[in-house]
Design a protein that fits this description.
By secondary structure, the chain is mainly α. Helix content is 63%, strand content 0%. The mean pLDDT is 86. The chain has a domain of 37 residues. The protein has two helices and no strands. The longest helix has 26 residues.
Length: 76
Amino acid sequence: MSSDPTGIPAEKREKAATSEGNSLVVSVVLFALLFVLFCAGLYVMSLFTTVTFLVGLGMVLLALYLTFDTVPRLLT
């Protein structure tokens, strides 16, 4: 009976489970959409009026929120 350094027999150790991953198409589409939204927000921010700056800022913040909060929940 073989055991590892922790003393747990090999037969009782759980095997490491890995996920199958996400669809490449979905990942590429989400990346493209969010990158375009972010860049469009930066462009709109540069149009030199207060309203367009705030709209662009909203677009950038939305893109960042979706990228770092919503997308990881969607893809896991």
